[in-house]
Amino acid sequence: MAYTNFTVETDADGIALVTWDMPGKSMNVFTAEILEELNAIIDATVADAAVKGVVFTSGKSSFSGGADLSMIKSMFSFYQDEKAKDPAAAAQKLFNLVGRMTGLFRKLETCGKPWVSAINGTCMGGAFELSLACHGRVASSAKSVKIALPEVKVGIFPGAGGTQRIARLTDAQSALQMMTTGQSLTAARAKAMNLVHQVVEPDQLISAAKQMIKDGLKPVAPWDEKGFKAPGGGIWTPAAAQLWPAAPAILRRETSGNYPAALAILKCVYEGLQVPFDTGLKIEQRYFTHVLQTTEAYSMIRSLFISMQELGKGARRPAGQPKTELKKIGVVGAGFMGASIAYVTAAAGIPVTLIDRDIEAAIKGKGVGEGLVKDSIGKGRLTQDEGAALLSRITPSADYADLKDADLVIEAVFEDREVKKAVIEAVEAVLPAGAVFASNTSTLPISGLAKNSKRPADFIGVHFFSPVEKMMLTEVILGKETGDHALAVALDYVAAIKKTPIVVNDTRGFFVNRCVFRYIHEAYDMLIEGVPAAMIENAAKMAGMPVGPLALNDEVAIDLSYKILKATVADLGEKAVDPRHMQLVTDLVEREGRLGRKNAKGFYDYPPKPAKKSLWPGLKDLYPQKKADDVDVAVLKQRFLATIALEAARTIEEGIVTDPREADVGSILGFGFAPYTGGALSYIDGMGVKAFVELCEKLAAAYGPHFQPTALLKDMAAKGETFYGRFDPYRVAKAA
User: Fold this and answer.
1) 491: CATH
2) Is 521 an active-site residue?
3) More exposed terminus of the chain, fewer Cβ within 10 Å: N or C?
4) Which regions span the lipid bilayer (predicted)?
5) What is the pLDDT of residues 46-69, one digit of tens each?
6) What predicted TM-score, i.e. pTM, was given to this entire model?
7) Of 484, 508, 532, which one is at a domain's C-terminal end?
């Protein structure tokens, strides 16, 4: 029988090699068609007496990344449609749908013939769950091999037998750690955890897998053998008595109870290890069905899986623009930010010229890349040769003429209009026709900077976040005259360096910084009210933020906040800023000399390592302090999330952000807005716009007019609308 996505070749020893190689796709993914074909392959190999065993592998450089977007989307769409008709029946149908992959993998596991998974490259999610159902697993020793069950990162958990098989192959603590964090394992680590049987050289992968079958691999999973005991003895042992009471407490410490899927993993393992394997699968199926019905799962999958992939693949790229072949990039400004931009560009295989005022400064900038390469080599992420090749692509220079053949030039110089004006003029004097100029400004409007350009249609903002090599988001900012060509080139560049772009229209602070400073300014309000600083930081983290607002302000620098406030007053007048905020940062910077982490003194003190940072004791002397018992932590959490979500809603109302996917993805990747909400706008949609408006009105009455809901929000509340309904990005795309 011929298959669309698989080839099956049986050798003289009776071993069938099943190769998964989906046509037209860079990576194999699970779809309904894949499940149907795999089911047919299991039936065919079982029925063929000549087949003694099966080796399952990938024909691509990676094994598989798991489920396809369309499969995930269809599951949620199906449930939402059915729920409107009959909620109970919808839940039952969802339960049956969830069990399809579980049942197929169990069928493979109990088919009576040995299957070996030969893992090359990335093997994640459902692909690793399929591998776990095989009787043998061999992994390539190549550096590209990454094995993981990362579902918890997008609001769900391994629901095709993963929680039951992992917990029966390795000890419960390691199983929980792997699944509740979604961590990636190397092949060697997976073998040490007993999750794969062998690690071999890449060219020996298939032969080693076949040899397992020739050596008499039993077609029976360990848990299907009589007398099987889970590693460590299961639940009722002295070791388990220490693990299980602590596990929920540790999880709550790490997640503040915000992630239903993470808690479901604990329940699946704890309950599943006390019953026979097939009953454990049913337990997992029930919890998975429950989690799929939560707002958190729906919102996280939409933003962190579907929207991120769509934006990364160019959802906002203008139609009709040819793909740019980037042969050379210029970066002007070899400070830490510019040097880091040059590094990620070179790491993507693109030659880059790094310009500064003199060659010594440019060479010093390349040194930033040298430090990052050294660190990567030390951690085994790069070989010496790869590191040397990367650095060879960075050319330091003090001569603007070296940019005469650049496709794109990014300026990353000091945040000063006159300095940037001089750079724009110097670059444009040599830049070829059709090349694009991008500013990495974080505070200055792009349209204003473009007034210094002779070619504003090819002038755009590309805003990176620090540290550039780690932060996955890039803001692409359109000036009033920016053309489609410049936007296409910028998005092609962001895709080349493997970052996720959001496209925003021009405004002070763009999108991310507007939201970030609302977060920080709410903390200023709380400090001024006398809320203890430790409560402010802890409440923010309990709300789901990765870093407290005071710690975040230290990272971005308090003196930068001071400069931004002063610039805002200069441009918009004194009423544009809260005078109490101005007084607070003025006192910290000018009177106390507390600039943030950069001078080891900010809202926190930063003693020499290994000592940890701690809140500056002097904070409690700035304002009369409230007693902790008089402060409602739940309200603090609401204030943080609501003030950021309100600012995101304002950017939509003002036309700064036009696609709700970008507000959600930008808020999570840009500054870590409570990922379990799915992002700032999904937070509003998740609770309902009407409920959000009521919350804001309540907060405005108690904490100030900045919480007043906008006209757009009131209109949406009255009409029962959502952001994803009113500003449906798919409807807009179809219309275009």
Assistant:
1) 3.40.50.720
2) no
3) C
4) none
5) 999 999 999 999 999 999 999 887
6) 0.91
7) 508
